[in-house]
Amino acid sequence: MFEGSVAVLHRWPVKSLRGEEVRAARFDERGMAGDRAHALVDGREKRRGKVLTVRQNPAMLTWGAEYGADVIDPPKPPVLRAPEGRSWSWEEPGLAEALAASFGMTVDLRAADGQQDRGPTVLVTFEASLTALAAELGRPVELHRFRPNIHLIADAPAFAEEDWAAGSTLDVGGVSLEVTGEHAGPCIRCAVPSWDPSGQRRWPELQTHLIDRHANKFGVIMRVTRAGVVTVGDTAWARPT
């Protein structure tokens, strides 16, 4: 068993846009409440209806989305922040046109609670692994690249989560999580972490290194088995199998 505490909580209201750090959040059958509950959809004729990600348009990382750092269970849609700093309500007329102008393509909006690409899951990362990865690469690695929900400081060895199998559990605050169900387990990374968190530059060597040294894994995907609220600083106990 490993013991630690919650260092950071991240919520990503709109898939592939920048998100927000929060002090506390509710976790339940949706995963993290409000996380990736909205998406931008390709409006071009040949790809109409497909959810957009950074892989199709890195400029998505120049936009941010937030409910508010004090919001535990978001009661309303997020606010988006454009690169020049203007705030847009999700339901405000003209938002789709502003996004289209920024991305150079037609964009539609979609809201559906729990539409995470891996289902209602929670991504957990560990400070020991992030620190060790930076040491291997010889330069700092921003946590935001990996888009976690819960980031822990724990007495687990670096990269221990790469071997977490079905049945591994994490108790944090009043919440229990488990590696269970489809898509759960060590997180196989796509190319998104190779983009810096603002979408300006790519660092392809990061993904190459993860593939060569870590079987392209970073973090662990889990599902909520006991709902509740997690707060930064809460104690966490991990029981890997």
Automatic annotation (TrEMBL):
SUPFAM superfamilies: PK beta-barrel domain-like. It comes from the Bacteria. Residues 86-239 form the MOSC domain. InterPro entries: MoCF_Sase_C (IPR005302), MOCOS_middle (IPR005303), Pyrv_Knase-like_insert_dom_sf (IPR011037). This is MOSC domain-containing protein. It comes from Amycolatopsis thermalba.
